[in-house]
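Reply to dn_fold:

You asked what the input looked like. This is it:
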Amino acid sequence: MSLIKPAENWKHQFALLMTIGFLCTGIAFSAASAASRGPQKGQKKSRSGSVNVEALQKKAFACYLQRNYVEATKLFKECFTRDPEDVSVNYYLGASALFSSDLKAAEHALCRVIVMTTPDSEFSSLAMKSLKQWRSQFHGIEPYSQIENGQLKRWDKGKGPIKVWVSNGLQLPRGFVGPELDSNKCKTLYSMFENPNFFKQLQTVVHYVPQYRDIVKSGINDWGWVAAEGIISFEFVDDPTKADVLYFWCPESGAGSVGRTFYPWTRTDNARCIVHIETEYLRKWGSRTPAELRKTSAHEFGHVLGLTQHSTNINDVMSGQGKTVTYREMTSYSASSAVTKNDYATLRALYELPPDYLYQPLNR
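and this is what came back:
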């Protein structure tokens, strides 16, 4: 049973007492209003109806009310293990961990709250406020929501590495190039990808430079730390028929974008993730082209990994707007990764939560 449903009086009483008792702390726990309303738009709800879970939640709240934050943290961690989709459990775990100086647990829990709710959710607002007020302790991280139509999507991290194939300038056949490609047409391509001869018939896109393929791989490798962190692993393959993710090229992407990612249809045989990158926009960059292409590649692979929503921070690689490039940046090329700590914290939180849609590697 979710802690945010306006049903049990003990929850209302706790929220009211907590608001009065901790209003002066700077966290501004206005939980009375959050607890008195139903689930908010885009907010993950608990799937658990266990009486034992509810009893454990009550015990955790009682410890919090008594300011026994160490015990409250321990109990809320157990609540999270049993019911990880409960937003309020994640939030109060973050709050109790913060007061008990368990900063790692606090950071993870508060990041999960933001990732699993919409930005206009009250719990999201409170979690972000906590991260900002303890900015130095949390290294200034600002994760961003990944809720799309009330759902979270990611790969099944227990099914082995994601296999990635990057074409050497190949574009998809007529009817599937650039803006012609849509999600429904991807289903048609899945069966075509089974035939090795399909790839032999593809043509090279205009304005393609052979070095582009290695630069795209560098952008993908900017996410290489995900395996070491135990989030998800990936590897490059030379055989496209065995790939879970396939990169193609197109003259123009359409929809005002320079790259697009199409997720594999769940519950569809041999579903793949398809990415295409535009070559036309690369022509104007001159010496800056390698940096721009690498950043675009890193951005699209962030989508591949499950970051469906863009960041509002223009410095993040998953920003949907892009950063204004200075003259100095245009005349120099940095090999450093464009992936920021905000991108990292967001992806980490996504893979700590149970998804609504789970993409399955082909395991070939």
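The chain has two domains: 9-133, 153-359.
Hope that clears it up.
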